[in-house]
What we know:
Elements: H1 5-15, H2 20-26, H3 33-39, H4 47-57, H5 61-65
Helix pairs in contact: 2-3
Amino acid sequence: MPQLLGEKVRFLRAQRQITQVELAQRLGLARQGYISNIEAGRKVPSLDVLVQIADLFGVTTDYLLRDAIPVGVGETR
C-alpha cells in the first residue's frame, strides 16, 4: 500500500473543508469510518473508490498512489 495515500486523502479533504462524513456521502459509502481507516493507513480503498476520490478532488490516481509525488505537490490534473 502506498504510504502517503491516507495523508494525501486527508490533505485534499481538509483543503476543501470537507468532513469525513461528507466525503463518505459524496462517494456513496455507508460509513465515515471507511474514510477514517483510509486516512489512517488501515484500509486500502478499492480501485472504484480510488478513482472516485481522484475524480472528486480533480487529481490523478498517480498522485494518490505514487509515494514519489509528495503530499500537496502537483495534485491537480
